[in-house]
Amino acid sequence: MPAFSIVSIVLLAVWLLLFAVGKHTRREQLIMSLLGIFISPGALLFAATDYRAGEAAGVAFTGFPELLFGFAVFGIAAVLHEHLPHKRQPMELHPKSKLVRPIEHWLARLCVVSGVWLFVAVAGNTIFHLPSVSAFILGGALVGVYVIADRKDLVLEALLSGVFITILIFLIEQFFFVRLYPEAAADFWKIGNLSGLILGGIPVEELLWAAIVGFSVGPLYEFVSGTRPKPFV
Questions:
Q1: pLDDT per residue over 78-124, tens digit each?
Q2: H and E: helices and strands count for the chain
């Protein structure tokens, strides 16, 4: 089993825990996880160009562990803020409101948003010669900024998701990858192509990537589906 597969398995365990306890967020978690599967192959192949040294780490970039990683990360990022101990105004779909969108409409919007993310990433890499991870971060940041600019009520969700998914990825990769498989971890990232800033054996770009995924994916379901805060009575 490739060393990095342990990270995917642990993330799946976290995903299953959130799915078990979050009855009201299961639909959101599943949909955003499927989005993760949709994005993962292209994103990981893109990262293989100058970010991750897949062969050295024994990773097949389109293999099951990578799909599982994308599935779990996107699903966790979408609902993690729902389980944090902070006061949050309940959300709902208003049946009589123009804000409600048919499911086929907002699923199409979700695909368009993810396509824009990947397009910006590829354009940034090929046209402006940005490193692949920087281009991916740029694409995600633009998506996240657009979402919260249009829906200012989702700013807190975006920020909390970004912070806590970063902490989660750091802890899991630190304890289940870097410390368990230090040689594989040392060869996993193409450090020579990165900034050289390392935190606990993990490149800072990896943590920035996680932060942007949380920041962008956290509020994305509410944005595309038209879910709004319940009015206070």
A1: 999 888 765 455 555 544 444 445 667 777 888 888 889 989 998 99
A2: 10, 4
Measured in degrees and rounded to the nearest 5, phi and psi for residue 133 equal -70, -35
Distance CA 159, CA 214 (A): 8
Distance in angstroms (rounded) separating the CA atoms of residues 221 and 63: 27
Assess contact for 154 and 222: CB atoms under 8 A: yes
> Taking the model in full, what pTM does it have?
0.85
Q: How far apart are CA 121 and CA 132, in angstroms?
A: 7
Contact 125, 132 (CB under 8 A): yes
Burial tier of 14 (Cβ tally within 10 Å: 0-12, 13-18, 19+)? middle
Neighbours of 108 (CB within 10 A): 13
Q: In 37-172, at which residue ranges do the beta strands (DSSP E only) sit?
A: 91-92
Beta bridge partners of 229: 91
Blockwise average pLDDT, block size 10, the chain, 233 residues: 84 96 91 88 75 55 77 94 64 47 73 88 90 92 94 92 96 94 89 90 94 94 77 41
d(CA 182, CA 38): 30
Strands annotated E in 9-105 = 91-92
CA R_g for the chain: 18
